[in-house]
Amino acid sequence: MLAVYRAVVVGLLPLALVYLVWRSRREPAYRHHLSERLGRIAARSDRPVWLHAASVGEVQLAVALIHRLRELSNAPIVLTTMTPTGRETARRALGETAAVMYLALDTRAATQRFVTRIRPRCAIVIETELWPNLLDTLARAAIPTALINASVSQRSAGRYDSAVLRGLVRYTLQGIDLIAAASPADKARFAALGAADAALKTLGQIKYDLAADDTHGRAKSTPGRSSSARPVIVAGSTRDDEEARWLSCFAEIRTHHPEAMLVIAPRHPQRFDSVARELAAGPWRWVRFSQHGFDAAADIVLVDTLGALGQLYHRADIAFVGGTLVPGIGGHNVIEPAAAGCVVVTGPHVDSWADIMAPWCRDGRAAIVDDEAALVCQVVDWLADRAQCSALGRANADQVAEARGALAASVDALTAAGFLALDRPARSSPSERV
């Protein structure tokens, strides 16, 4: 099956490069550093610790892990990512602490070139990126490999277990030395997909650590929701078409709660202006956050800057998390608004977050709704008793704070397994890969 996969990705390589160039029409950074996508990088001889994080969310976890690893070792560090925003986030956060570059596309030649030139002492992949050629190359080179904060949704597990992918996924997972699952359910799914029992550990969800730490820092500097007499709804990380749906929902919500205000934070900066045009065409009194900040007199605040969403969750009664009303995305971070003390509502497409939200939903602290009509009903119900809504939000924040510890456990597991050492014996030798 690996041979078939290799033939397919070689055939798709020209299309992938064309896509990157096409994407660069709107985001010019996609045309930069294309040689890195082919593994054409400078050779290294210092045997770095190598981490990979796909995009911004994973990069944030990687940065926290790198800072903890740096306390234990002076080993050089390389961090790869897949997107320009991830690369820029890593560069700003790490400075000279780590070299930052793109990961090679998953052809056999590109991944072998990348691994040969980096010569990492270990590979640490944040969350779940199963690139068969890359992971096979690492296993054959006897480079210890870990998945940290690893999760696989029930939907993804079903896809991986299909007749077409089952053998390839099993083979790929068996080349990984440590799979630090984010939950017992994730561990069980990885085991069912063929991961080695010896590699599997349940270490918890690192996003709890990051959200709790971030909340502690912001609580000292951000005016809280008590500073606003009006109920505040934040629609965070919204994707294409979700803003239009929310404007329709908000009009209905205002018939029940005319004092309510809405904060909209699109996921991608290139969409700020198009959402602004959509707001300008409507009846709302709206402002740009970059120009007016949090204007409590506005009906709607458009968040058109990066890095502001976290502080705005602290002002909100209710948080909607985007990428969930439209299919194919699977949602974004629901832990961050919960840590800030919000009740959380999403659309139905929460593939990777359903397990986390399940206990919140049972207690009424969150809701996964089927459509916009149900979304309106849920928001209206919560705002009908704002004191109760606030109590439910505080319970979310308390639960997130209590769930910390996965970051320290992951660092302990990596160090105990010798991932930072240059002479760690590999679990399997290249000859065992067939």
Quick one: biggest sheet?
A: 7 strands, parallel
The count of helical stretches stands at: 19
> β content, as a range?
5-15%
Strands, total number: 14
| Structural Rg | 22 Å
Unreliable segments of 5+ consecutive residues: 425-431
Task: Indicate the percent of residues in helices.
Answer: 40-55%
Question: So, CATH architecture of the largest domain?
Answer: 3-Layer(aba) Sandwich
Q: What general outline do the C-alpha atoms trace? A: globular
Question: Which CATH top level class of the largest domain fits?
Answer: Alpha Beta
Provide the structure class. alpha/beta
Give the CATH superfamily of the largest domain. 3-Deoxy-D-manno-octulosonic-acid transferase, N-terminal domain
Overall mean pLDDT: 93
Summed up, the domain count is 2
